[in-house]
Amino acid sequence: MYLDRGIQIRLAVFTVIALVAAGIMVFRYIDLPAMLFGVGRYEVTVNLDRAAGLYPQANVSYHGTMVGQVESVALTDSGVRAVLSLNSEYPIPSRLRAEVHSQSAIGEQYVDLMPQGGSAPPLKNGDVIAAGDTTVPPDFDSLLDATNRGLDAIPQDNLKTAIDESYFAVGGLGPELTRLVKGGTDLAIESDKNLDSLITLIDQSQPVLDSQGQSADAISAWAAHVATISKQLAARDDSVAGILQNGGAAADEGRKLFQRLQPTLPLLLANLSGLGEVAVTYQPALEQLLVLIPQAVAAAQGSLVANHNTRQDYKGIYLDFNLNLGLPPVCNTGFLPPQQQRVPSDQDYPARPAGDLYCRVPQDSPFNVRGARNYPCLTVPGKRAPTVRMCESNESYVPLNDGYNWKGDPNATSSGQDIPQLPPGAPPPAGAPPPGAGPAASAPPLIGAAEYDPATGSYIGPDGHLYTQSDLSQGAPKDKSWQSMLTPPN
Questions:
Q1: Interval 293-322: pLDDT, tens
Q2: What residues contact 318, with CB distance under 8 A and at least 6 apart?
């Protein structure tokens, strides 16, 4: 037979195409080298409690990717042994679970490999997955039998009602159910990607769960309180609705109020912050004050109703006119001398003297027992001092004198302290002796002098009392003799 050159070329091209197609079918689709000689594959044995419909040539998946197939399924003394032929192209961790699932309703089974940790070494040829790390689907016949028995337990008259109510419950919720299923699928995929973190969270959740169990009583009480509040809100539904309806307008009015107060409100809040720090420091004293106020109010009420339910025709309070004026005397120790005290009629406001002015007598003295010297130090329990600085230092309170009289000039005392009391390191006022210098080391004693009123001849003495010298007044006789000098003043 003679074939021309064109036909020969066509036959050659056709032969090449047929050989290429056959090669693709053999090596790509049939995977004949792997089927006959196991090239690029390795075998792993899976022990199962039962076959559950698994059959040879069933698919094996890992993360949703087909990585092999079931080579064989055989019975053993303890269950079923399935040999998996896996593609060596995919490294699969050896710490995993093998789960048999049904791919469709007709019972098409496959094996799904679920890794338990990404740090485990990969599977290799000859590895065995124990039966404890495998799961199989429930027996379909047993499931149908249980379903049948469950339906038989439902009264036939109520079965239609149950089906109708189920339709009303989920009817028209197709998009929502689809979104729920899709969200659950996305959640499962993300959980699988973060499997190690989830396993760590589950392993380390035991202390948290134990704490919840130990606080079960407190949680129950909290739930009961929430239920009580909910009942109160339900009972006051109209009031709550009024708050919600009028709350916006009230909040807007509050905003406008804050805008009107904007120039002064920040300053007020800044001052309140300092006041808050003082309140925190003096919290024990404030608590004690709140304890004593009800007792004082009760005592005041008792005095106001002293004659209640008695035979007296009048009602009122008990009065005691024993004023005890001057008992004990006024404390002058530690203050400026009378000569340096200002006249009450002056209307200017000079600068406050440097230092602290307070009654500086012994702390157990009967004078001014509630004075600054007996202030309790809240930050140092058991200590009393006139200033916070002295409370928080190692310095102890030292009185000037016993307080019963002025022992000479008040600025030259036996304690050597300044008047006013200056903080440590402060320079003494001009003309005063240095701190710690007693009367012997001080300057010559000052001459007592006092300003007097020319109209009446009255003046304040060093002891703080008012005296009158009649011959100093404007009405005193101008001419004096030695006899008038011997005559005592009026």
A1: 999 888 877 776 666 666 654 555 666 667
A2: 303, 306
The string of pLDDT tens digits covering residues 235-279 is 988 888 888 888 888 999 988 888 888 778 788 888 888 888 888
pLDDT at 191 over 50: yes
List, for residues 366-391, the tens digit of each pLDDT value.
888 889 999 988 888 889 999 988 99
Residue keyed to tokens 């101008």:
478
- Residue 446 Cα to chain centre, angstroms: 64
Helix axes 216-235, 237-260, angle to 10 degrees: 90
Quote the DSSP letter at residue 474.
Answer: T
Spatial CA neighbour of 417 closest among 392, 389, 385, 442: 442
CA atoms within 13 A on the CB side of 263: 1
Cα–Cα distance measured from residue 89 to residue 62, given in angstroms and rounded to the nearest whole number: 12
Q: Is the dihedral of CA 124, 127, 129, 130 positive or negative?
A: negative
For residue 404, is pLDDT > 80?
no
Judge contact between 137 and 100, C-beta under 8 A.
Answer: yes
pLDDT digits (tens, 9 = 90+) for 411-431: 445 555 667 888 777 776 655
Using alpha carbons, select from 170, 181, 105, 177 the residue that is nearest to residue 143: 105
How do beta strands 41-48 and 128-129 pair?
A: parallel
Go through 254-271 and write b for each residue having 16 or more CB atoms within 10 A of its CB, e for each that does not: eeeeeeeeeeeeeeeeee
Token digits of residue 24: 């693709």
Q: What is the pLDDT of residue 372?
A: 92
Rounded to an integer, what distance in angstroms lies between the CA atom of residue 106 and that of residue 109?
9
Whole-angstrom CA distances from 150 to 128, 307, 487 are 39, 85, 132
